[in-house]
Design goal:
This is DUF8128 domain-containing protein. This protein has 328 residues and is an alpha+beta fold. It is built from 10 helices and 12 strands. The protein starts with a helix and ends in a 16-residue tail after the last helix.
Length: 328
């Protein structure tokens, strides 16, 4: 049944000249900053200070709707195999704030104007995938690291790996505020789960009842910390360009690099979903969603804490030939 489904569903489409031209241009009203890691100097493993500094809470409709800015972090690989890291914000003021906060946390970081559109050309194939958490998102991902966790993705995209393919790895995030009913339900489910983890587990026979294990208590503590801290809506998307029928394999390779974010204590992990459709126009819709950098039907978003997000948007400290670094 699965093989038949995969045969019936497309996993990529080929761009015409007009389609490539449309995707090649930016969506407008966006400010993109490419960041270049310093060649020498320490880079923090995660960017907690940056995430806290760039966060702005905004609501509308008497606090019922979230109007906070959506920020995008992207890792791109061009035709030459060169890797670039960039952030996109919706205003010039936020761009200045972004540069200031990144410079404070990573001295020696270089900045250039980034790229708004997608690196696509006529006759390129496009496809992709999404990541979302495998367990309830009240269970946090890993947050403690000795080196930047984005190193794993950077290593997977070295110039000799998947050399015939271009990529856009996009992480969207927006502060979680407003929507009081939905937020209250999320917190209620989180506390219900941690209450279950902490309580004594009954058995059919009373003498087999057991207290919570140390791991269950650690999980409950992690959920309580996350529920009581600021959170973000997060979406992780892969746009795979030029891989043709190998697109699903490329998606799996990219997803494997994110295994470093899994947490052995909480059991949280990231689950992969490859874009498949009977209609090839759906791949254009997916690529356009990546180009516009907006939450929409192509998001599979989940909630992450500040510490989780700070790990996801980290800057690599690898000495790799295809990384554009700042001049000394």
């Amino acid at each position: 049944m699965i093989d038949l489904k995969n045969r019936l569903l497309h996993n990529h489409t080929t761009l015409s000249e007009d389609e490539a031209e449309q995707l090649h241009h930016g969506a407008g009203s966006q400010y993109t900053v490419e960041v270049k890691p310093p060649r020498n100097g320490d880079i923090p493993s995660t960017l907690n200070q940056f995430v806290r500094g760039i966060t702005e809470y905004q609501t509308k409709w008497l606090g019922l709707s979230n109007a906070s800015p959506v920020i995008a972090y992207e890792i791109r690989r061009s035709q030459s195999g060169e890797l670039t890291y960039q952030y996109t914000v919706p205003s010039k003021r936020l761009e200045r704030k972004l540069r200031t906060n990144l410079s404070e946390q990573i001295p020696g970081l270089g900045f250039e104007t980034g790229v708004d559109g997608l690196p696509v050309l006529k006759d390129d194939t496009i496809g992709g995938g999404l990541l979302t958490v495998g367990r309830r998102d009240c269970y946090p991902l890993r947050t403690e690291y000795d080196i930047p966790p984005i190193n794993a993705l950077t290593a997977a995209l070295h110039r000799h790996a998947m050399w015939d393919t271009k990529f856009v790895v996009q992480i969207l995030f927006q502060p979680k505020i407003g929507e009081p009913v939905r937020n209250r339900l999320w917190i209620r489910r989180a506390y219900k789960q941690l209450g279950y983890l902490r309580k004594e587990k009954p058995d059919i026979f009373p003498w087999h009842d057991r207290p919570a294990t140390p791991r269950e208590r650690q999980q409950a503590d992690a959920i309580e910390d996350k529920a009581g801290s600021p959170r973000f809506d997060v979406s992780i998307r892969f746009l795979v360009i030029g891989a043709g029928e190998h697109t699903p394999s490329r998606v799996k390779e990219l997803a494997g690099a994110f295994n470093h974010f899994e947490d052995a204590t909480t059991g949280q992990y990231l689950n992969t979903s490859t874009v498949r459709s009977l209609r090839e126009s759906r791949f254009l819709e997916f690529a356009d969603a990546v180009r516009r950098r907006e939450f929409d039907d192509w998001s599979l978003s989940f909630q992450a804490s500040t510490s989780e997000l700070a790990a996801l948007v980290s800057i690599p400290d690898r000495n790799q030939q295809n990384i554009r670094t700042a001049q000394p």
